[in-house]
Amino acid sequence: MTHILQDPEDFAADALRGYCDIHARLVRPVRGGVLRSTETPDGKVALVIGGGSGHYPAFAGYVGPGLGDAAVAGDVFASPATELIAEISRKAHRGAGVLLAFGNYAGDVLNFGFAATRLRGDGIDVRVLAITDDIGSAPKGEEARRRGVAGDIPVLKIAGAAAEAGLGLDEVETVARRVNDRTRSFGVAFGGCTLAGAKEPLFVVPEGRMAIGLGLHGEAGIDETDIPPASELAVLLVDRLVDEAPAAPGTRAAVLLNGLGGTKQEELFVLWTHVAARLRHHGIEIVAPLVGEYATSLDMEGCSLTITWLDEELEQFWLAPCDSAGLRVGNTLPTRPAPPLPADDAARTTWPEASPASRSAGTFVAGTFMRLADMLQAAEDELGRIDALTGDGDHGMGMARGSRAAATAAQDAASHQAGAASVLAAAADAWADRAGGTSGAIWGLGLRSAANALDDGVAPTDEAIASAVTQAVEAVMTIGGARPGDKTLVDAFEPFARTLAAQVAGGASIAQAWSRAADAAKQAADDTADLLPRLGRARLHAARSKGHCDAGAVSFAMAARTAGETIE
Amino acid sequence: MTHILQDPEDFAADALRGYCDIHARLVRPVRGGVLRSTETPDGKVALVIGGGSGHYPAFAGYVGPGLGDAAVAGDVFASPATELIAEISRKAHRGAGVLLAFGNYAGDVLNFGFAATRLRGDGIDVRVLAITDDIGSAPKGEEARRRGVAGDIPVLKIAGAAAEAGLGLDEVETVARRVNDRTRSFGVAFGGCTLAGAKEPLFVVPEGRMAIGLGLHGEAGIDETDIPPASELAVLLVDRLVDEAPAAPGTRAAVLLNGLGGTKQEELFVLWTHVAARLRHHGIEIVAPLVGEYATSLDMEGCSLTITWLDEELEQFWLAPCDSAGLRVGNTLPTRPAPPLPADDAARTTWPEASPASRSAGTFVAGTFMRLADMLQAAEDELGRIDALTGDGDHGMGMARGSRAAATAAQDAASHQAGAASVLAAAADAWADRAGGTSGAIWGLGLRSAANALDDGVAPTDEAIASAVTQAVEAVMTIGGARPGDKTLVDAFEPFARTLAAQVAGGASIAQAWSRAADAAKQAADDTADLLPRLGRARLHAARSKGHCDAGAVSFAMAARTAGETIE
Predict the structure, then answer these.
(1) Which of A372, A427, B34, B154 is the most exposed place for a label (fewest CB within 10 A)?
(2) Is the peptide bond before B229 cis (omega within 30 degrees of 0)?
């Protein structure tokens, strides 16, 4: 369906005008089509391409250095007029002759053929190539009757490279005919295309069905079937083409998996893995594959696969640089391949060097996480019940799973002589990765921030602990975006951190300071828990949509008290 | 609707695997995302980007030289996990720090923020940028709350160029924040997107309606309206953005017109012309615009417009080369602008030098075309009636229109002292261009082939005339594809040419020879005309589908006789 248009009658011309403005670096508009806007040397064979519109990037999108010299554009799905082809060819001509190339359709054959006759009358040497890649349009032995579909692209790319390389018209024609003879395409459609301004598609494929061998303009296909999984679709496409391989195919091939307009790139990527595997199964080496929209039919849903069996010269031209809106080959920046990556470690076994005091503190931290995990496992149901008052009730499960993973990771790190900072970091990362949900990420973030504030080289002082806790709550508020009063764990965490810092600064022992901070957290959490059932759903929803967890204050206060019980 | 898939659960991962295989020149797969496959020098700031899948080319498509160093990919529309972001960032890190850049969504903010905390714990300098370009998602004054949409692309492009240029992390971050502050996007949707494997879209826009300001995942928009013409849509998009221009915007801007997945390139091209005009109306100079699919939402129908107001440094980075699957900037071949084209001639006024005898023959040819045009005008209804027996009845009209145009052009050429060959060529071209339909093209082709066989330097001999007619029928048969017996004008043309050549070779005068040839044509045409009503529709349809016209033999025979009457 076309939603953006001005006048349906002018759709093709309007689109071409916009295209020329966008790609002025490459093309300039002329009556009936486009011409390169870059300088072309005298004595270069001109490649003039074209056909009906509605197939972008075909054909105007393939004009530029290393590809077409000009494109003639008819109305949607209609051949361009003879005189426009001749007129544009005269402008593109650089004294070395013209190759006219287009898909094999009656109207195009006639108009390009007639244009060639006119140009010859002007003394211009012209060759005419109707591209015939679609094996769905005529049987073996009648190759010359076949339509041109996405095989246009390798044929034009290779012919364009031959012309750019300075070959004469005889040679360019020979190369172009050879690549056409060695190119085969086959396509399927899941849905029809709709002309600009029309309410109904040109044709319909029943829901869940797939038309096989259907043409770019809805020409009748050869079969219809249920849509198979990607792996089977790949086999269907590849095997039909391989069965039609030209004589002396060789083993190397250019491959194009083309979307018809209404099929997403991601779908083509999914299909590609299976196509590539099947091609390799047949012993075909894939050379610089193209996957994307290269010859479309407005919004038709479907795809086609094209194979061009290469020889040495064709491969050289396939890989030669070109620059167009629809196809670019070659580097814009010099590059070299990167060295291989080291294998991912299965499990971490080395940790930063730690002082004896810090290692001892690390063992203590690991023990605290074991207590925490046991407590939170026991509290799982209670926390779930509180969470279910206002949310989806999974808070207890997440806290239990996260704290258990943290405890295991902390024990592992401590057993490898890690210091307190490293043990806490290991616990943090494991909690975030295993707990799931927002609260897991928040706990991981807070613990990691605290770990980053510590140093494996020395035993943490009381001041260092208080400072680490302060940095943790600041990270949670900054990154999580919640403030005290938002009914999240920050409601308890913030007074905890503030009290802890004040108590330590006032000379209290860390055990005393922690205990008073845990009391402050508990009081705040109780206020929150009392309030939760009385909050409106809308306000809760708003808080949750920011990624906050309403039972978080309660579980934080529990955790703070349990941790405090381990501090001697 | 997704038609190509293997397992819906694995859609994002499957697509990423295919993408990596296709673009192995640029990227290599790592757990949870992709890394450049090209060498990156030590000391370069690493740009690590990412977010949910389903937005291709965002984000994996923007990894490559001059752009991202790595991309982390979550599941469809879901943030990637913290540890994957951290792990991939460690692999991308080249000792100069990491900029994490992503669209501003709660899950991404949390996971990238937490990953940054972990990386800092590893001693890596990390900066975090949540991109906030979508003016539809929060009002002025609350810019930091806005979502990131297609504005991701200019921000990532410019930050990537800054990193590639060797700037330090502080400078890269400064540039990235500045381009984000100077980038605004606004979008509309005509239809919702459908998750792989789902039968229903995530949301629906009523037929003929347009959601304004809707988010990339279907987040509620700010308004809904009837779909306007492209010109009005352009004003809506441009004016809203211009109204939100940053402080000190300057006059030069990078512009991106983005398709959301289900909107065709041609539609974007149509819209672009109006967008560009409106931007220029506001005094904005467009710098290297991008029009296409850059940040999609599966198959969502709609588009967005992004403006990045440039300063000198930002423009330099916007234009710097980059190489990725989703965006390439820079030449792959050296080019220079082409010289301007000469203006098209309004009408041709000069012709090749012709001998007096050929000029005289040219005047005779022009007179013959006047007689032909008069005769075919008189016969228009009769030819239409014969054609309607088997076809659409427009043959008479086409022949009348074509022959009148040919006569006018021939008179004009003759009045400019053109020789016989040039007069015939002018008639041929005018006939083809004005008659329309297949018969017009065929007549033009035949006449042009005959003209090409003559020479303006000498008066045509009888042998030259017979030879020109033979070449004409051969061109018609070769290019048109019809043979005698196919019920086309070839049925009459072929015996005409054969008889003419034989008579001339046998010593008959051209007048006698032509008269006998015309008789042969008439007899063949009568046979054909008698046969037409008795042919089955299927056989006629087959002939017509090849581009043949059934009344052509009759009109050819009439024309041959009329032309003969002028030969003295």
Answers:
(1) A372
(2) no
Number of H helices and E strands in chain B, helices first, is 18, 14
Q: Which residue, B286, B294, B230, is CA-closest to B255? A: B286
Distances (CA, A) of B386 to A10, B393, B483: 35, 7, 21
Q: Does A108 touch chain B (CB under 8 A)?
A: no
Cα dist from B88 to B13, B22, B32, B36, B176, whole Å = 16, 21, 8, 11, 21
Q: How many CB atoms lie within 10 A of CB B139?
A: 12
Query: Are residue A308 and residue A211 in the same domain, yes or no?
Result: yes
Residue B401, classed as helix, strand or coil, is helix
CA distance A452 to B313: 36
Domain harbouring B42, CATH code: 3.40.50.10440
Which positions of A are catalytic? Answer: 217
Amino acid identity of A284?
A: I
Mean pLDDT across the stretch A134-161? 95
- Which A residues, 206 through 235, put their C-beta within 8 Å of a C-beta on chain B? 210, 227, 229-231, 233
Burial B443-471 (b: 16+ CB within 10 A, else e): bbbbbbbbbbbbbbebbbebebbbbbbbb
Q: Which domain holds residue B443?
A: 356-566
CB contact under 8 A, A264 and B323: no
Q: Do B74 and B208 sit in the same domain of this protein? A: yes
Specify the residue for token string 């076994």. A349
CA distance linking residue B513 with residue A345, whole number of Å: 94
CB-CB neighbors (< 8 A) of A117 in chain B: 445, 448-449, 452, 475, 479
The answer to whether residue A299 is domain-embedded is yes
Cα–Cα dist B213/B237, whole Å: 10
Q: Do A335 and B341 touch (CB under 8 A)?
A: no
Tens of pLDDT along B309-340?
Answer: 999 999 999 999 999 999 999 998 988 999 88
Residue A334 lies in a domain: no
Cβ neighbours of residue A208 under 8 Å, at least 6 residues apart? A226, A227
Min Cα distance A335 → chain B (Å) is 6
- Cα B305 to its chain centre, rounded Å, is 20
Element (H, E) at B47: strand B46-53
C-alpha span between A36 and A49 (Å, rounded): 12
Residue A481 in any domain: the answer is: yes
Do B294 and B395 share a domain, yes or no?
no
pLDDT tens across B261-283, in order? 999 999 999 999 999 999 999 99
Kindly report the nearest CA distance between residue B422 and chain A, in angstroms: 9
* 8 A C-beta contact, residue B521 and residue B515: no
Residues B11, B7: Cα–Cα separation, whole Å: 6
Question: Nearest-CA neighbor of A242 among A189, A287, A281, A293?
Answer: A281
pLDDT tens digits for A55-110? Answer: 999 999 999 999 999 999 988 888 888 889 999 999 999 999 999 999 998 889 98
Rounded Cα distance, A99 and A105, in Å: 17
> Considering the domain boundaries, does residue A349 fall inside one?
no
User: Domain check: are B71 and B139 in the same one?
Assistant: yes
**What is the least distance, in Å, from the CA of A516 to any CA of chain B?**
28
**Mean pLDDT, residues A103-132 taken together:** 93
Amino acid at A420: A
**B474 in reach of chain A (CB within 8 A):** no
Say which amino acid occupies A453.
A
Q: Are residues B378 and B444 in the same domain?
A: yes
Average pLDDT on B435-450 reads 84
Q: Tens digit of pLDDT for each residue in A429-464?
A: 889 877 766 788 889 999 999 999 999 998 899 999
For β-strands A285-292 and A252-259, DSSP reports them as: parallel
Same domain, A104 and A214: yes
